[in-house]
Specification:
By secondary structure, the chain is an alpha+beta fold. It folds into 3 domains: 32 residues, no CATH class; 31 residues; 64 residues, Beta-lactamase Inhibitory Protein, Chain:B, domain 1 (2-Layer Sandwich).
Length: 173
């Protein structure tokens, strides 16, 4: 009988200790605008709401599942650095592709080699690729070579039906 009394006493003590966990939690705003939470009854004259404290356990966060040793931090750092280098390399390549080509210009020695009547193939063989090519019609093309610091002239060559018809050279700097 004493054993049963001890068991009943322990059970009742557990119930009394767990009673605050079952208590109601109230939320209200006082006259100063402060939000209050309490498991006691709120003062009279305030609008109080019962707060549901039946919290369910959620998924553990990614931070709590990660390893926090120096080795794990080093491994994560290596992965982040590799990812950053890949992104920087990709962005650098995109910037280089988007940047305009520097002006090639047309050197004076090459300019004097070009005459009216020269074919378009000979023109490209002597002068090289132009800085700007405008194809006005099926038979009319305008090759423009922009000025450079070493050669401050803009050269415009008009090709009609595959032959140089006009050469114009102006000082721009």
């Amino acid at each position: 009988m004493n054993a049963n009394k001890g068991l009943i006493t322990a059970f009742l003590t557990g119930l009394v200790a767990a009673a605050p966990a079952w208590a109601q939690v109230y939320r209200w705003v006082d006259g100063k605008g402060t939000v209050n939470y309490s498991n006691g009854t709120p003062p009279a004259g305030v609008k109080a709401a019962k707060v549901d404290i039946d919290a369910q356990p959620g998924m553990p966060s990614a931070d709590s599942t990660e390893c926090h040793t120096v080795r794990c931090q080093g491994e994560r750092l290596e992965v982040r650095l590799a990812r950053r280098e890949q992104i920087e390399a990709r962005l650098s390549a995109e910037r280089a592709a988007a940047a305009p080509k520097p002006a090639r210009g047309l050197d004076f020695r090459k300019y004097i080699s070009i005459r009216r009547g020269v074919t378009e193939g000979e023109l490209l063989g002597v002068a090289g690729e132009p800085d700007l090519l405008v194809w006005d019609a099926h038979f009319l093309k305008t090759y423009t070579y922009f000025p450079t610091p070493g050669d401050p002239f803009t050269t415009t060559i008009t090709v009609v039906r595959g032959r140089v018809s006009e050469i114009e050279r102006e000082r721009k700097f």
